[in-house]
């Protein structure tokens, strides 16, 4: 599965009742030894880094071994099956919305009592914590991923325009994004969308690509325009407000009015399989793409001539943050203390290469505030010069947490109402106002409030 698909997962129907926690398949091998199981998804790069981290943990804990359970496909289905069969791992990744359900069913360890024992866990960014009640903490977002504006330096240079700004204070307005996207969009004859004879069916390079159906891509725009998904109580949907409608109409207009962005199927080589952002930029199929920070690893591995900019802004410059799955300890573990120790270890930049390699952003606040700590994960060839302002400062000062971390019942809302509405919007068959005004009351009827929040 692609990383975006995994982040989109919201905990599908379980393969059977997953009630109270069942016994873990982890256990004890030789006398005096402890064996843990760590379940996770990811690319081949992530797989190698996780295995290296687990070996380091074993070396730091003589007598403890960790079995990696790498699960790149159908992760939620397989995890549900393990839970139903009483064969849960000791710890690992959990799709975000599913994690709240599992916690409420008693399948995940409450980590709140361990914050004092592991001080680094108590020093995380506030939005990293996943609370399911007062003093009830079932995990954290594995990494603090944010949405960014990636661009091809070659395409920008050929168009003769300035690169997207790398500082929030200088972020493009939406109109500036559109204007520059016109200059970056060319058909097979070299014509731009505002030129006579432009052929929208034969576009060689699109100016920009922004997903309409992927909430993390547009939630920062929504918040920046003074709108939100729901009211303060989380009980009334606000997607039919003028501010929200403006954001979604602008996204639709990129495709059908301005013709600077690809519509459904226009980037897919076969079926719905759209190439990754690294491929789109390297082949100059698209000049600018809104995508998550995690694309950095593939950019570097593919040797793309890329740059990073902040997202265009409305009234305020915001980006979606904490766009990640959850990390949790399963209540069925026979070795909860050791599992919690590995939990704290597995997202510590001192032991995991994924931060320096560019896949993950840290969760501890010191990695955004202390210069030495910032340098420890960003001062290397994997991070371009603009990374400090475009990512570290931007994420720290302008991030708003992903909806999947905050909205109760979002999985059902998305599958039943939100995603079909966004797909219709993406098709261009009706304007945003008509679609959102029809969908909003249905969403309101399904809302159950925001997830619990508190200071660690």
Which CATH C-level class of the largest domain is it?
Alpha Beta
Please give the order of strands in the largest beta sheet: 2-1-3-12-5-4
- The domain count comes to 2
Helix content: 25-40%
Largest sheet: 6 strands, mixed
The residue ranges in which pLDDT falls below 50 over 5 or more consecutive positions are: 1-25, 27-31
The share of residues in extended strands comes to 5-15%
Q: What would the average pLDDT be, to the nearest integer?
A: 92
Number of helices: 18
N→C terminal distance: 33 Å
Radius of gyration: 22 Å
Going by CATH, the architecture of the largest domain would be 3-Layer(aba) Sandwich
Shape: globular
Kindly report the CATH topology of the largest domain: D-Maltodextrin-Binding Protein, domain 2
Number of strands: 13
Assign the structural class, choosing from mainly alpha, mainly beta, alpha/beta, alpha+beta, or little secondary structure: alpha/beta
Determine the CATH superfamily of the largest domain.
Periplasmic binding protein-like II
Describe this entry's structure for a reader:
This protein is of the alpha/beta class and 456 residues long. The protein has 2 domains: 182 residues, D-Maltodextrin-Binding Protein, domain 2 (3-Layer(aba) Sandwich), CATH 3.40.190.10; 217 residues, Periplasmic binding protein-like II (D-Maltodextrin-Binding Protein, domain 2, 3-Layer(aba) Sandwich). 38% of the residues lie in helices and 14% in strands. The chain has 18 helices and 13 strands. The protein has a 6-stranded mixed sheet. Strands 7-8-9-6-10 form a 5-stranded mixed sheet. A two-stranded parallel ribbon has the order 11-13. The chain is globular. The two termini are 33 Å apart.
């Amino acid at each position: 599965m692609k990383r975006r698909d995994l982040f989109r997962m919201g905990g599908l129907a379980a393969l059977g009742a997953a009630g109270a926690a069942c016994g873990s398949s982890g256990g004890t091998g030789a006398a005096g030894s402890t064996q843990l199981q760590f379940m996770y998804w990811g690319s081949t790069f992530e797989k190698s880094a996780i295995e290296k981290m687990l070996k380091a943990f074993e070396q730091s804990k003589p007598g403890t071994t960790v079995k990696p359970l790498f699960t790149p496909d159908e992760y939620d289905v397989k995890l549900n099956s393990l839970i139903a069969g009483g064969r849960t791992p000791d710890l690992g990744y959990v799709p975000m919305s599913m994690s709240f359900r599992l916690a409420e069913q008693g399948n995940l360890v409450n980590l709140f009592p361990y914050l004092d024992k592991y001080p680094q866990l108590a020093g995380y960014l506030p939005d990293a914590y996943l609370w399911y009640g007062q003093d009830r903490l079932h995990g954290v977002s594995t990494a603090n991923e944010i949405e960014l504006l990636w661009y091809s330096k070659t395409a920008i240079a050929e168009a003769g325009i300035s690169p997207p700004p790398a500082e929030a204070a200088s972020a493009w307005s939406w109109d500036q994004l559109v204007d520059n996207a016109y200059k970056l969009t060319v058909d097979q004859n070299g014509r731009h969308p505002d030129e006579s004879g432009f052929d929208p069916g034969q576009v060689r390079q699109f100016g920009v690509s922004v997903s309409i159906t992927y909430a993390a891509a547009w939630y920062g725009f929504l918040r920046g325009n003074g709108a939100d998904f729901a009211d303060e109580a989380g009980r009334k949907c606000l997607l039919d407000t003028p501010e929200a409608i403006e954001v979604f109409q602008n996204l639709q207009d990129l495709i059908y009015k301005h013709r600077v962005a690809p519509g459904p199927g226009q980037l897919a080589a076969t079926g719905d399989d759209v190439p990754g952002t690294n491929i789109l930029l390297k082949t100059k199929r698209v000049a600018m793409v809104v995508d998550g920070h995690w694309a950095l690893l593939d950019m570097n591995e593919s040797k793309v001539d890329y740059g990073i900019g902040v997202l265009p802004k409305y009234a305020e410059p915001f980006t979606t943050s904490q766009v990640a799955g959850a990390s949790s300890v399963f209540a069925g573990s026979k070795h909860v203390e050791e599992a919690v120790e590995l939990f704290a270890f597995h997202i510590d930049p001192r032991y995991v290469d994924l931060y320096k390699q560019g896949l993950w952003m840290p969760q501890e606040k010191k990695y955004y505030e202390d210069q030495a700590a910032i340098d420890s994960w960003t001062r290397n060839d994997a991070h371009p010069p603009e990374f400090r302002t475009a990512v570290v400062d931007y994420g720290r000062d302008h991030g708003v947490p992903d909806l999947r971390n905050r909205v109760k019942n979002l999985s059902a809302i998305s599958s039943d109402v939100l995603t079909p509405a966004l797909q219709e919007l993406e098709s261009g068959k009706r304007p945003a106002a008509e679609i959102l005004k029809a969908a909003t009351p249905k969403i309101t009827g399904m809302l159950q409030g925001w997830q619990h929040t508190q200071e660690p």
